[in-house]
Design a protein that fits this description.
The complex is a heterodimer of chains A (338) and B (228).
Chain A lengths: L9 H5 L11 H5 L2 H25 L1 H32 L8 E5 L5 H12 L4 E7 L1 H12 L2 H5 L9 E6 L4 H13 L3 E6 L1 H43 L1 H9 L4 H44 L11 H26 L7
Antiparallel strand pairs in A: 1-3, 1-4, 2-3
Chain B lengths: L1 E9 L5 E10 L4 E6 L5 H8 L7 E6 L2 E2 L8 H5 L2 E4 L11 H12 L3 H14 L15 H13 L5 E5 L7 H16 L3 E5 L3 H7 L2 E6 L2 E6 L9
Helix pairs in contact in B: 3-4, 3-5, 4-5
Classes of the chains: A alpha+beta (338), B alpha/beta (228).
Bound molecules: adenosine-5'-triphosphate (ATP) and magnesium ion.
Adenosine-5'-triphosphate binds next to α1 of chain B.
Chain lengths: 338, 228
Amino acid sequence: MNQRIHNSPRATRTAQRPPAERGPGAVAARTSLGDRWHSWLGHHREMAGESLRRFFATPLASGMTALVIAIALALPAALQLGLVNFQRAVAGWDGQPQISVFLHKDVRDSVVQSFADELRAKPLVADVTYISPDDALAEFQQSSGLADALTGLDSNPLPAVLLVRPRNTASADLEALAQQLRDSALTDSVVLDMAWVQRLAQLTELGRRLSAGLALLLALGVLLVVVNTIRLHIENRREEILVVKLVGATDAFVRRPFLYSGLCYGFFGGLLAWLLVAAGAALLSGPVAGLSASYGSGYTLHGPGISYLLGLTAGAALLGLLGAWVAVARHIKAIEPR
Amino acid sequence: MITFDNVNKRYESGQDALVRVSLDIERGDMVFLTGHSGAGKSTLLKLLTAIERPTRGSILVAGQNLNRLRNGQVPYYRRNLGIVFQNHQLLFDRSVFENVALPLSVAGCSKREVGRRVRAALDKVGLLHKEKHNPIVLSGGEQQRVGIARAVVNKPAILVADEPTGNLDPQLSAEIMQLFADFNAVGVTVMVASHDLELIARMKRRVLTLQAGQLIYDGIPSREPAYS
Ligand SMILES: Nc1ncnc2c1ncn2[C@@H]1O[C@H](COP(=O)(O)OP(=O)(O)OP(=O)(O)O)[C@@H](O)[C@H]1O
Ligand SMILES: [Mg+2]
């Protein structure tokens, strides 16, 4: 039925056109396209404003939901931030594998020098650094703070060390090189620092996967929280949905306020999550600075910056929107006037 | 304007609510629908408003076959109807004005247009001075009139009402019926389901009577009730 009274109600009576001539487009044609676009935009703006108003109209309930979302998102975000900080802190360490060759204590300095030269000539070796027992002692005294105790010793207990930097980091080549070094008569023991580097990389990878898995799981949790919250909203506004459907609201029109509500929950949840992480970082920055100072490093904790703020709010808003969409798709169809 | 052709409606429960109903309503007519409780009055209006679909037969409204109406088109179809149903009443979380404005905001009217049309509709039902009230503070008759204002604010060509005078006293009922007659007088096709035989008889309009889903009477009753 697309017959309408355009100007005055009497128009219908005088209109003698057969009704069948008017197609389903008659209603749409009534208002110009520009007007429709404006009213569509207007409705979006109105719904965005209304969802905000509704969010703050029940601050306790809304805040609680947002906080649940925030906590769920703050956990993986904090883990991620911790990981980034850890990686940054250890970035100063040499990532290159290195082989420490501890020599027998009775080997003379000149022999060691020629052994080092011999090693430098090997194709597998990139560089060799020689640390004489005296150098080692001086360094140890400086870094350990045990200078007084050590000066009391009558002979230097430290062996000479050659730090061998391999040209090739493939583990088979490294093992081969380590074996060659072990076989030398001058060698007491050989330590492949590779193990540490590998362990560090694996630890980092473990942390990364853990935080990714946790993020995935908790994102799912956030989704469910939003789905449930929006489902309750829909239930609470059942009467209103019935009435607007009866007066000709499209599904899109009915969905809109709920989608904006989901967006709202997500956004504020994300914002709160960022604040939580930032507050946590601020609390920890003192102890971390102290700790790194005690290791002789000037490292300071990096807080969640603007990228975390954008990522968390946008990601959470998107999750909220998705959750609202799921709730709306499942529940609004079922509310039809009967 | 409205044509039912051999329409059957069987609910999922197996209840036959309408049986082979055929009728034709001209543009600008005012028609009453009566019958005992359970006769199928509401069902007929629900088919007309695309709330339910017929099991068999076809319904034509202004040349449009409702059987061919896709679900997505139903909202646009309803925007051309004014619907006054007893359940689905006013929303009490907003003002009278906002209640009446609903069909317009749904259809995407501009703000200026909404204000003008809502006031015109409220003026017609005599409630312009209560536009800022919450409908909960209004009397039953006033609430019903707000519902009617909401139904006509879109200037529909067809006005459909199911028991619009349900809980009202005779005087208020007569006023409400007169309101429908006024809209009819300016060209709106009106269809009202009602139990109130006395009132209907006084209106001297075409009456359709349903019994157990069948149309058993279609005409203008000639006799006035003996006591009126
Ligand atoms: N949704 C439904 N599901 C199953 N049966 C229904 C449904 N709606 C109505 N009916 C049945 O269809 C028949 C007609 O109902 P309808 O509501 O159309 O009657 P009515 O004439 O409006 O009655 P009343 O005067 O009491 O409002 C009744 O027997 C009723 O029980
Ligand atoms: Mg009924």
